[in-house]
Request: fold
Amino acid sequence: MGYDLVYIKISPHNKKTRDGFGGNTDFNPLVIPTTLRDHYNFRGAYILDWPNGSNDFVCNRNPDYPSCPATGCVKMLQPIIHAIAATLGKGVRPNEGTYGFSDAVWSNLENTTRTKYTSILDNAPSQADLFKKWAGMTPPSGKGYLRKKMASSDELIVTIPRFEKDSPGPGEVMGYAMISKAKTVGIAYCGRDRGMRIDSKSDSRKLNHPCSSRIAVMDRFFDVFAKKKDKMPKELLELLKTSWYKQKAAQIDITAGLTALAKKGKMAKWVLTMVFFADYLKVHDRPDINHPVTFHWSREKIIGSSQYSKSNPMDNLQSFNLVVANPPISLNVPTHQISQVGGEDYVTWAATQILKGFGWNFIALSYPGSQGDGAILPSGSSGLKRERTYCDGLGMKKKRGLLLEAKHKESQIVPDVTKLNKLVADEDVAIKDAFSRMGKKVEAFTTCATFSVPDGGLAKSNARRAKLSGIELAVTFSDFSGKYQVVKVKGGKILQEGPLPTHQMYSIA
Reply:
């Protein structure tokens, strides 16, 4: 492992869905900590079960904080937290290149918890069980590829559906590389199932486009990004284009180009992530792989020979991340500009606290960067093609539902105003279905927008409130005045105001 830390993941081990669809619902996540323990001697990974609530399809949630488990329902969580606190209290800190901290936390766990977690891992699938399952997998007829495949005993190929949203990130390629211990890891790409695929032959799909040569495959690949069906950093896309049009070969070395990109600001993290855990990118048609084009690179030349490991890509983390060369991170408690420091996270949290005082009970919350529950499925297509949208909060008061949208700043809220107005006007049934799936029945809706403002003048400004037309409530936060306001948008009446809500919040220095 690269970092001497403790990892805790809280996730439902029951993957049932009411309608019988979903991802790899048979995957047992405990194979990950089992593999880390048995093959890496690492004791710092804890995957804890978030149990069901009222039925098999709903988690046991905290009624006040619906994104969190109900108090006490996640077994072993508190003993692990106590062990971490005890370890820190004894002055033990993470030490790169060792297991000192994670082993100390394990030793400080009470005996009953150690015994219980050991038993759970002993009864979980092993790495050998997982490999056997992988070997027996065949590509689904409608998909045409396997997400992960052992090309040989030492080579793993991970097919990613899209580059968007930081894929291939650590969670995708790194996870499979770690479990497999493969010496060579490849990333494969053949387009997204529900978008522009790179096809081997004709089929009935609307966006079907058979490719009968390497040139056709690469033309289709670049067209996927040109038509915005996927996206990757423009600098990397330009490197692939330039390299392809210059050589038009089955094998293309892009080491020099990646080395340059690895020194460019934001690109450095993206490129180094890909280089750390993979040795090549293969673009191909599916399902036949008749005309593949492989872009490959030398990890040793890009990250430096002193850090390069020839035994396993995962080992590069341990040698490359020299944390002693960086100053330690410190946390500063902000004493001013709460909204500015807290951003959209703070706005979302604070608005829900205030609205609870008006009698709203929140049943779903989606914080920035997350995708919470309470999906609204607009009318139209069905199945995997069906669109879905989320509000930042869904609340209830008697039989009235609340649709909440949050943004950090007032200048960012207009698209959300449009979204809320359109939902209420066109998707009455879809909104009621979203509440119904969580066991709630609503008959009418209230819309609310929340954001930070430079001053307390929203209520007095007809022009500013006009941008919120159609929305019933606005909850605003001002660092300048140090106050929040709940404003009735039509007419500008201030329903309530007071000092900004505070909680433990930190900035990193």
User: Anything to note?
Assistant: Confidence is low (pLDDT under 50) at residues 322-331.
